[in-house]
């Protein structure tokens, strides 16, 4: 498959331009103000799949944003790869921290990527990584080298919990039937340390509301005499971790998989520079659960983070008010075997229980998903490993990731197939943050590597 | 002074209309978007003082919003009353909880005020109460019954800490020379339980900023491994009270005046219905410092309340982010002898000290002021008491208030005179809250009562 390099050389400017066009559409699924843009993005993805040479391309309506489906069936006797990705993106807030507008993509060199990176919301998560697959398939179809069947399922609600994908998947077992699922929505350790994500954390995301008095009050007249919902919310949140940063929700750790000393020792071999990590984040010290390393804390251990908090007067100047209500968005990252629905229930029960008299508490589950672990002795993993080795010149490291793609566990349950997470992003890509970017080198390296996965997987499968 | 009742009957519609016009101008001093409106309000107050018959009316420029000064000197040998009030108002947020727009005043009956109350931001605090004085003086001037000299000093920065009034006062000792200061910016226990506020709490208002990583992070990739500024802020706020709701800042209580058992027993005689209090606030239980009653908690005890908190994603839906920064506005109500600048310093030192490694903390003092206690054996208090007794038919109860008018302590220090707090509002007026209002009855009762204060004070003084 030598000509992939030539094909890339010939078409790379077009590949970049096409991605930039896609990044210009603000497909923010969490904010209904952008709903038309999300729909326009689905149309753009449909067109891109048609142009790449796919058949049966369709916009599949759901109760929310549509799923774009496409396929290229060359022989029912050959194996089938199902590619999953998402065309929606995270909200760009806080927009004032972006160095260029989030939906006006620009290519700029960075210290890590002197050859340039594309800066835009969704550049890495997941428009850029999803689009690599469309371009890789374009190459295989146009050059007559597609060695197996391929199906695409690109959704528009990943950033809001894949609300309607589960229904779609459960209703289309036959249409989506496959031998392996391929996703690029994760990262690698570094460009010279390729890695494959073998585990993902689950997620439970809830919103809490604490109500005290039935109206905002003057803090002079009522201060000290009634429960202040913000003080109470702070106290309740603080109590969710103990002095060792263990989570205090009863039953939270009951199903947590404890790794053996051998497994932890194996994990500890992955290259990690704590000083560089702290420097890149501008922090003097890391912080987390006692008894675990930084890499363990953000991969094999469950966590609880407040993702947003608000209440009272937050404008300019001062207002001496006791707010009637205070709110927080709280997410818990879960590890394999923790059930997200059970954890959501445990959280709700506990949070309601610890509310003092004088306030009322409402817990609203937003969404969630199970964690996932993929074994490395499957042909899916082996094919991916060999593909990276071919194009990076190095065997990739298996790595447990801290993020969540809740749908992966569901795929296995519904479609009975394993997922391979071939990520080409880096932690430094600032996904979910201002100045998200994706290096041009990584984008093109992804397009180059993916066809080898198809080749090796088809060879090993037969 | 029988004709005050007649004068009121004759002019009450005009008095109401004039106040409504004043309430239409959104003089929100905390928000620079309203700066022209604040200036327009100063002009309106100037015109009102001129119309009432005052002399030497002027707009006195300061580094911030101007002070409106006026006087009526009838005889240098007679005593002089200095009236203080403010024409700026609190921000109206949250505006969606108002039943009518905050700057479109309407008169509506309420359960407590079947004869109607004026609903608007500033109706009670302090435009309505300040305007009573202008109308009372109008009556005394127009009917030739002003028994002493009067000076007005109406400022536009009370709701943002009277930033520039201190300078003005210190530079105009002679101009502002007086024998008693009169302020209506507090409340009474009830319309059938008139009371005079004899103490006010001091205030220290600060803003805190907690910074963790140098950018917003993806909670999947970093969750559990770095200090989350919102979780940390919650923990730090929670730690500011112990399990008995005592404030934990070292030295905070050192200067707190402890009342004797006799004084507390005397205070406890004031009529107070805990069930009605809880019902009016929609709460099942009161909450506060162990060992003190509700009335003690919000008058003779210092407090610490979070007035606003914000950080991370607060929009629609979910975003799995670890914010770089979290913020809170925190105010402490202080009791006499606590020095607000010392308390601010104690807070700052403590808050910085308790920040864990991995975050940086910035504490910005907003403003503050000293508490105040006025003795009841002065002719000022006695004149006010007799005035209420004349128009309410009942001797008023001396009452310690929970709010703060920081400038009162400064007046005593700079001008060497005592302040009498003749408030005609009620706690239920929802000042600083949505649906602030001031009953028409109370507004007119204030105008009726004030001239008697001038009469009795002048008589007792000679």
UniProtKB/TrEMBL annotation, chains A, B:
Coiled coil residues, start to end: none
Alphabetical keyword list: Hydrolase, Metal-binding, Protease
Protease keyword on record: yes
One annotated GO molecular function: peptidase activity
Record GO biological process: proteolysis
Peptidase M20 dimerisation domain location: 199-358
InterPro entries in the record: Bact_exopeptidase_dim_dom, Cyt/Met_Dipeptidase, Peptidase_M20, Peptidase_M20_dimer
Domain of life: Bacteria
Key word Hydrolase present: yes
Pfam families the record matches: M20_dimer, Peptidase_M20
PANTHER family cross-referenced by the UniProt entry: BETA-ALA-HIS DIPEPTIDASE, SUCCINYL-DIAMINOPIMELATE DESUCCINYLASE
Protein known as: Dipeptidase
Species this protein is from: Pelagihabitans pacificus
């Amino acid at each position: 498959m030598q000509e992939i390099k030539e094909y890339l050389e010939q078409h790379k400017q077009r590949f970049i331009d096409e991605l930039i066009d896609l990044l210009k559409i603000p497909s923010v699924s969490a904010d209904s103000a952008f709903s038309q843009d999300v729909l326009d993005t689905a149309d753009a993805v449909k067109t891109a799949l048609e142009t790449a040479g796919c058949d049966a391309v369709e916009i599949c309506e759901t109760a929310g944003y549509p799923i774009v489906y496409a396929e290229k069936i060359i022989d029912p006797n050959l194996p089938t790869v199902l590619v999953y990705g998402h065309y929606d993106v995270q909200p760009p807030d806080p927009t004032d921290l972006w160095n260029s507008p989030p939906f006006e993509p620009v290519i700029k060199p960075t210290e890590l990527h002197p050859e340039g990176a594309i800066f835009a919301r969704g550049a890495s998560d997941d428009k850029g990584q999803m689009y690599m697959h469309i371009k890789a398939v374009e190459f295989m179809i146009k050059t007559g080298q597609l060695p197996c069947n391929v199906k695409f399922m690109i959704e528009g609600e990943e950033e809001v919990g894949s609300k309607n994908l589960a229904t779609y998947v459960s209703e289309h077992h036959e249409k989506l039937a496959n031998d392996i699922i391929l996703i690029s929505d994760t990262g690698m350790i570094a460009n010279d340390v390729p890695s494959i994500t073998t585990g993902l954390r689950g997620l439970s995301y809830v919103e809490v509301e604490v109500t005290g008095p039935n109206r905002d009050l003057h803090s002079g007249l009522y201060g000290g005499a009634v429960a202040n919902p913000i003080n109470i919310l702070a106290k309740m949140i603080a109590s969710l971790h103990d002095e060792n940063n263990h989570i205090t929700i009863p039953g939270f750790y009951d199903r947590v998989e404890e790794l053996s000393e051998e497994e932890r020792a194996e994990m500890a071999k992955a290259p990690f520079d704590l000083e560089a990590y702290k420097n890149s984040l501008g922090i003097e010290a890391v912080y987390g659960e006692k008894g675990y390393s930084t890499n363990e804390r953000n991969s094999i251990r469950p966590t609880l983070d407040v993702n947003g908090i608000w209440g009272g007067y937050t404008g300019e100047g001062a207002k001496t008010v006791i707010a009637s209500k205070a709110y927080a968005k709280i997410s818990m990252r879960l590890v394999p075997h923790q059930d997200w629905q059970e954890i959501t229930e445990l959280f709700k029960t506990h949070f309601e229980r610890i509310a003092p008299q004088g306030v009322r508490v409402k817990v609203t589950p937003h969404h969630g998903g199970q964690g996932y672990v993929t074994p490395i002795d499957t042909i899916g993993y082996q094919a991916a490993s060999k593909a990276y080795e071919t194009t990076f010149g190095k065997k990739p490291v298996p790595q447990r990731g801290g993020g969540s793609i809740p749908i992966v566990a569901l795929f296995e349950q519904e479609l009975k197939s394993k997922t391979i997470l071939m990520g080409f992003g880096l932690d430094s890509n600032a996904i979910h943050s201002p100045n998200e970017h994706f290096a041009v080198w990584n984008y093109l390296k992804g397009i180059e590597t993916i066809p080898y996965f198809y080749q090796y997987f088809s060879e090993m499968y037969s």
